[in-house]
Amino acid sequence: MTILNPNTESEYAAERTFVKSYLDRVPVSSAISDAQADVLKVKIKQLLAERNAVLVAHYYTNAQLQSLAEESGGFVADSLEMARFGNQTDAETIVVAGVKFMGETAKILNPEKTILMPTLEATCSLDLGCPSESFSAFCDDHPRHEVVVYANTSAEVKARADWVVTSAIALDLVEHLASQGKPVIWAPDKHLGNYIQKQTGAEDMLIWDGACIVHEEFKTRALEQMLHLHPEAAILAHPESPMAILEQAEVVGSTTQIIKAACERPEGKFIVATDAGIFYKMKQLAPEKEFILAPTAGEGATCRSCASCPWMGMNTLENLHETLLNNLNEVRVDPVLCRKAMLPLQRMLDFRQSQTA
Length: 357
Ligand code: 13P
Ligand code: SF4
Fold this sequence. Notes:
Radius of gyration: 20 Å
CATH superfamily of the domain at 25-124 and 311-335: NadA-like
CATH architecture of the domain at 25-124 and 311-335: 3-Layer(aba) Sandwich
Strand order of the largest sheet: 1-9-8-6-7
Structural class: alpha/beta
CATH class of the domain at 25-124 and 311-335: Alpha Beta
Largest sheet: 5 strands, parallel
Number of helices: 16
Shape: globular
Bound molecules: 1,3-dihydroxyacetonephosphate, iron/sulfur cluster
CATH topology of the domain at 25-124 and 311-335: Rossmann fold
Number of strands: 13
């Protein structure tokens, strides 16, 4: 297994410090009451209709936003299906509740549409950990390699890639490339990269050293102990989790894939290693089942994320309302960059299409 990071240790440590200082600045979202939420939801639905806008939300956003997306004719999904939906809707404006790369992906695939986000500050540790200049230089050093990047990257990194993938199709795509004997650069999530390499046996795969701060916190020993307490439970894990967690899981998959597994598998109890926002949809689709959050590094104040992505948490009904009311937070991507980044994104959608055909 090859893990490469062209950054020196100290540069990587600097990136981590940056992520930490960023997180310390991120305001903790204040949950509002159901009654207040209902009032805001009515106003937001009206604004969405007036603007011919549709709300697309990720499974990790809060339950109020997810339910609003569903009630207003929008969509709640994983990052792949969010991209597909955005590409197919007739709405003039797409409002993306999620993180920066999701808004940028919507803009790249729909340059003629207006893309708004409740906040433009919500980023992702994977995106932050893969600066386009050093990544591009790394690719230049390995010209034979097919460049496959995870969707959780900047528009610049996507523009340098041959393929963009999400966790829903990463395994299939690398398998496809490996079967053609193609060497691969994978970036930026090392845990997903290691998992793919193990599953596919891809021999020549260079893996960037990035990680998701939320999934990286799941703890192996504590998970074993939890399973001891609930031996009848099945473990469902997102592939951004460390390998020792994935090795214990019955199902490893994208957010949509693990929700589907929770509905279709025979077990009545699941230990879930991903962001806790996913429980809204799991409980909605399988109300008779029990879902337990996999243990993280610490409790309360001692854990960095507590299985709750701080950037996803920056999306609220309040800032969504402000955005629509005052026409704020439009996602803009340089048109030249858009055209370059659209190619590997469109290849991802075409590959997905060819799988379902
Ligand atoms: P999905 O593609 O599974 O929705 O995951 C996106 C993400 O950011 C996971 O942390
Ligand atoms: Fe990024 Fe992790 Fe948050 Fe997903 S959960 S958006 S990978 S930081």
